[in-house]
Amino acid sequence: MKVAFFRPKSRIKELDKFKQAGFEVLNAPLLDTVVNEREIRRFSRACFDVAIVTSMTAVEILKEFGAIEKLKGKRVIAIGSKTAEKLRSNGIDCDIPEKFDSRSIVKEFKDEFRGLKIALVRSDSGDPVLCEIGDTDEFCIYKIVKNKGKEQLKLVEKVCKGEVDFAVFSSRMMVRCFFEICKSLGFKGPKCRVIAIGPPTKKELRRFGVESFMPEEYTFDGILNLLKTIA
């Protein structure tokens, strides 16, 4: 059973569990990250009561630039269990929301955080819905750029020709990049079953006319469990 992913090379280890479960993994990173040092410096000077950290990448960048200490003693919300693990391994206590999509996070914490200053630590392509949680200051400490090289074109072509069984998408921007490549190659979209990691990604796929499966838990562990039931 062939499963196509589009994860960054720095996250390739996440896919080992799929190989161990017997799936044939194909991966070509559609997105890459570029650090925004100006935003990191701004975060280091900021005053806030609560920080919402949306990814492992954000944690790694804060650590690399010596800004992770800013989180100590603050209420910290980690989006995703892997983000939480990375924070805790750096001595930062944190909580995890019940669900990891922006709309659910706003619903869960909006009343609790009323009157508090909230720092959103994330990429430049984060869901704007999360800003509805309260008095927020957004720190886009890295930007996401698209990769459209030969490696990417080759895998997108396989997905569009039905030469894989599943294609997995883990962000809205990943979906957009995929369809930009589709268009350049003269294809309309995937000819295989599609999995979206969560509601925003599923909504973006639907915008391009693609229906998708979605795991109960919006993580790669959730995707693996889903694959085991539908493959």
Radius of gyration from the CA trace? Answer: 18 Å
- What is the number of domains? 2
Q: Within the CATH hierarchy, at the fold level, what is the topology of the largest domain?
A: Rossmann fold
Largest sheet: number of strands, sense, barrel closure: 5 strands, mixed
Which secondary-structure class do the elements indicate?
Answer: alpha/beta
Average of pLDDT? 95
The stretches of 5 or more residues where confidence is low (pLDDT under 50) are none
Give helix % range. Answer: 25-40%
Encode the helix/strand succession as letters: EHEEHEHEHHEEHEHEHH
Count of strand segments: 9
Strand order of the largest sheet: 3-7-6-4-5
Structural overview:
This protein is of the alpha/beta class. It folds into two domains: 2-30 and 148-230, Rossmann fold, CATH 3.40.50; 33-144, Rossmann fold (3-Layer(aba) Sandwich). It contains nine helices and nine strands. A five-stranded mixed β-sheet has the order 3-7-6-4-5. Helix 3 (56-64) packs parallel to helix 4 (81-89), helix 6 crosses helix 7 (172-185) and helix 7 (172-185) packs parallel to helix 8 (199-207).
Question: Summed up, what is this model?
Answer:
By secondary structure, the protein is α/β, with parallel strands linked by helices. Helices cover 37% and strands 21% of the residues. The chain has two domains: 2-30 and 148-230, 3-Layer(aba) Sandwich (Rossmann fold); 33-144, Rossmann fold (3-Layer(aba) Sandwich).
